[in-house]
Amino acid sequence: MASSIKHILFDLGGTLMHAIDDSAEIFVRADEALVNKLSEYDIQLDAKKFRARLNEYYSQREKDFHETTYHFVLRELLKELEYAEVAESVIRSGLDAMYAVTQTNWQLEKDTIETLRSLKSRQYHLGIFSNAGDDKDVQQLVQNFGIREYFDFVLTSAACFYRKPHVRAFEIALAQWNITPNECVMIGDSLVADIYGAKKLEMKAIWLTRRATFTVDDMHRFKPDFSIRTLGELLPTLDLMNMKLMM
User: Fold this and answer.
1) Which domain holds residue 131?
2) How far apart, in whole angstroms, are the C-alpha atoms of residue 240 and residue 6?
3) Can you give the pLDDT at residue 213?
4) How far apart are CA 6 and CA 4, in angstroms?
């Protein structure tokens, strides 16, 4: 008979928070903010060229699930443009200007804080692993939303090099608690990154569907242990899951 699960690994975007505007306009404004900030240091960068390079980076990381970070992409592009000796602080200031725009586009789900409070009151251990190209951006979002206190750790692919569904991403997260896969459940909106990734390691996985995008093929290939529409359904679902484990 298995013991009950008391460790929960959350995804962030699409799970605990959501984008207000999915249009390209937010990225245009963000890229312009980065370009304008770099121009203060006499660095001339075309915003469209930067976005094109990011798109190449996005394509590659979805093939090998390795994260090379926005910082790396920007630094390498500037080298190609013969800005070889750009200070790290300058690159960081450009990225900070960009993220100052994109961070305004994120909104915490209405049931996030109530759910986190309820889970902590039941002595659940909570962590986050977010696929993201910049660790500082994610840490700021979590802090600004006032939810950092609920989590034992906030990990990103930018800091860990591996993206979900790579097995190493989950292994790194589990190592924060020094637990085995059967002691943790993954909660996320992506059938591939969150559910498939967790199941490869034989973790339990609960699929949050309200903002999920998926294909019919994904539905047939990747099977969560449970599906929920809202975070408000999470606690009773965990109770049911643990009851079945204890039978």
Assistant:
1) 7-16+109-246
2) 13
3) 87
4) 6
